[in-house]
Design a protein that fits this description.
- The protein has 249 residues and is an alpha/beta fold.
- The protein is built from ten helices and eight strands.
- Helix 2 links the parallel strand 1 and strand 2.
- Helix 2 packs parallel to helix 3 and helix 6 packs parallel to helix 7.
- The structure holds SN-glycerol-1-phosphate.
- SN-glycerol-1-phosphate binds next to strand 8 and helix 9.
């Protein structure tokens, strides 16, 4: 049985890049979240992330993972805003370290709280360098993390953070402008970081149309994430998926 990380890397190798969709456990009714997850899977997503900057209900969160795993064949992966979102019912967890910021709680504090639980649950842990980039608006991610994002035109800063993460042994770099962001991560920054480090780069935040998604892949993104589009425009997910899966075009 392949690990979730291996499945994701295989999807990327086979399809040119991987497409991940994000569900916020609090934003929609449970049945609607299930419906959206099915649409994501049918549209060709390679995995579903579940998480939020500020979670309103732990019980709903745990139930959602169980329900989605029973419903779809693709991995259902925890993308937690903090240790309170850790569940035993995920296929894997993106173990996020917010390397772009200097908030010790998000660099090591929350990870220490989560670690014993993850061991107890036997969870697959995917160590991920989470990097917040200026988005044009104040996103929940920026507000809740109490960190400053990387300036949009400072590719060198992004590159150095990503390389530090690689040397620290992390396995993924996540370039993020935040859910609902006005602007996505600049493609030149995606390109600069992807070329500079050996780690696969995930890009998310503010990606609402196929052309923008394709731009990130052409810039070197290994995975593209959309969240708001799943909520607001589920009819578009097939197009988004096709745009990301560049090897299938
Ligand atoms: C996940 O922030 C993304 O990293 C999702 O962003 O909701 O803007 O697609 P959107």
């Amino acid at each position: 049985m392949k690990s979730t990380f291996e499945q994701l890397l295989q999807a990327r190798a086979r399809r040119g890049a991987g497409y991940l969709t994000l569900l916020d456990p609090d934003r929609l009714a449970m049945e609607e979240l299930e419906r959206r997850a099915s649409i994501c899977a049918e549209a060709g997503a390679d995995g579903i992330l579940v998480g939020t900057s500020l979670m309103l209900s732990t019980a709903r969160n745990a139930e959602l993972f169980e329900r989605l795993r029973a419903l779809v064949q693709i991995p259902v992966i925890s993308f937690p805003g903090d240790a309170g979102q850790v569940v035993r019912t995920a296929d894997a967890i993106l173990y996020l370290c917010m390397v772009s910021g200097r908030n010790p709680e998000l660099l090591i504090g929350q990870q220490v709280r989560a670690a014993p639980l993850l061991k107890e649950y036997g969870m697959e842990v995917i160590s991920t360098a989470y990097m917040l980039v200026e988005s044009g608006t104040l996103t929940s991610t920026e507000f809740m993390s109490s960190t400053r994002p990387i300036p949009r035109d400072k590719d060198d800063i992004a590159m150095a953070h990503a390389l530090a993460a690689q040397y620290l042994g992390m396995r993924l770099v996540y370039l993020e402008t935040g859910s609902g962001a006005r602007d996505s991560v600049p493609t030149p920054m995606v390109r600069a970081v992807s070329r500079y480090v050996d780690l696969p780069v995930i890009v998310g935040g503010g990606i609402r149309d196929p052309q923008t998604a394709r731009d990130k892949v052409e810039g070197g993104a290994a995975f593209v994430v959309t969240g708001t589009a799943v909520e607001n425009d589920p009819g578009r997910l097939r197009e988004l998926s096709a745009a990301v899966h560049i090897a299938e075009a």
